[in-house]
Design goal:
This protein is of the alpha/beta class. The longest helix is centred in the C-terminal third of the chain and has 18 residues. It is globular. The N terminus is likely disordered.
């Protein structure tokens, strides 16, 4: 659906965007991209990879008509009108029914089947919202037009426990298989997007042809790898974790962690930590390649890949403080009961806070952060011209 020139991409042919997950925090990515494309409207990213909420952003960019700057503008407008009711709903009767069934099975020692809870929240509103706003046929048109080389979304298989990256690209687009991760070539559908974003327990798993899938961040230890496998030599990755951990108020040793604090810790481990670890591995590989003698065949085809890792200047969890009353009433009741109003419990709120008041704050922060770092970003991108 994109209106593009017939000539293939040349200036940014080896550039990829890597968009990680984080629920409502992913709105920060949109602000960063808005600032970059405003200053460099000719920018294109022929390789797009995403996971969880980042998969939604990546798919939106890959399927939109027009240049990248236009696609970012469209995505920004969609985030501005997004509300919690467009993403999830809570059905208390379903939760109670599942809990009672599980308890009865336990008390009666019934072994006829496992207890099943399909998710604390229903993702049907998000499916409906994306159905109305995303035209996935646009991916194939953009690939055929030469604006896009490949888009890759990662999800976790509940059958094999592996991270599966679903890739749509040209017929010769590479796929790969490594320890606990594999790539398959396919035509992306809405189910692939939703599977990548289905946080375990919170949302029900999504059934694809070969089994059920959940959030791709769960076991994704190498979030930069899909873009590298697809041929990128320059990566722009947007983290949602500050350079330094926030300074939390001291908590007495005897004060047991609240449930919201424990869940926040788990979510941060799933969504925020792996990209930092992978960037360190990439830097070590680059150092290794740099010291090899000229003309020496690099082991296993290793090559230098440049990375621009952008991150927020302020903690996105702490920014959620004060927005908690905007959660849907039942969600707010549950979050408060779990200790979500403690300082370290606001991380949980930040993942669920799909309210324009919060997401626009994050987009504005992303915009101002990218603007403040523009000389560094521009230098990184201008090297693509050579």
């Amino acid at each position: 659906m994109r209106t593009v020139a017939e000539e293939p991409i040349s200036r940014f042919a080896d550039l990829a965007l890597v968009l990680s997950g984080g629920g409502a925090r992913a709105s920060y990515q949109v602000g960063v991209l808005a600032a970059i494309t405003e200053r460099m409207p000719e920018l294109e990213a022929p390789i797009l990879t995403g996971v969880s909420a980042g998969a939604i952003n990546a798919t939106s960019l890959a399927s939109s008509a027009g240049p990248l700057a236009s696609a970012v503008g469209t995505l920004r407008r969609e985030w501005k009108r997004l509300t919690p009711d467009d993403v999830y709903c809570v059905q208390p009767t379903s939760i109670v029914r599942s809990s009672v069934t599980w308890l009865l099975r336990l008390l009666m020692r019934k072994r006829s089947g496992p207890g099943v809870m399909r998710g604390l929240m229903d993702m049907t509103p998000l499916r409906q919202h994306l159905t109305e706003t995303m035209v996935l046929d646009g991916i194939a048109r953009n690939i055929a037009a030469g604006r896009l080389d490949a888009v890759a979304l990662s999800a976790t298989s509940y059958t094999t426990g592996r991270t599966v990256t679903f890739v749509q690209g040209h017929e010769d687009t590479p796929v790969w298989e490594r320890a606990l991760r594999v790539a398959v070539r396919t035509e992306l559908r809405l189910d692939h997007v939703l599977a990548s974003a289905a946080i375990p327990i919170v949302f029900a798993a999504v059934k694809l042809e070969d089994g059920f899938y959940g959030d791709g961040s769960v076991r994704q230890t190498a979030p930069l790898a899909p873009a590298i496998h697809l041929g990128a030599r320059k990566l722009i990755a947007i983290s949602m974790k500050t350079q330094r951990d926030p300074v939390w108020p001291s908590v007495p040793i005897g004060d047991y962690p609240a449930t919201a604090e424990v869940i926040s810790l788990l979510l941060n481990a799933v969504f925020l930590d792996s990209i930092d670890a992978d960037s360190e591995r990439l830097e070590r590989v680059n150092q290794l390649v740099a010291v090899l003698p000229q003309g020496y065949a690099t082991p296993q085809g290793l090559r230098r890949v440049d990375l621009l890792l952008l991150r927020p200047s302020r903690d996105l969890g702490l920014l959620a403080k004060g927005y908690e009353p905007k959660l849907p009433s039942l969600v707010r009741f549950v979050v408060r009961g779990m200790g979500g109003r403690r300082e370290r419990g606001y991380d949980l709120v930040s993942y669920l806070m799909f309210d324009p008041a919060y997401t626009e704050t994050l987009m504005d922060l992303g915009y101002s952060d990218a603007a403040a770092q523009w000389p560094r970003i521009e230098q990184f991108l201008e090297v693509s011209e050579g």
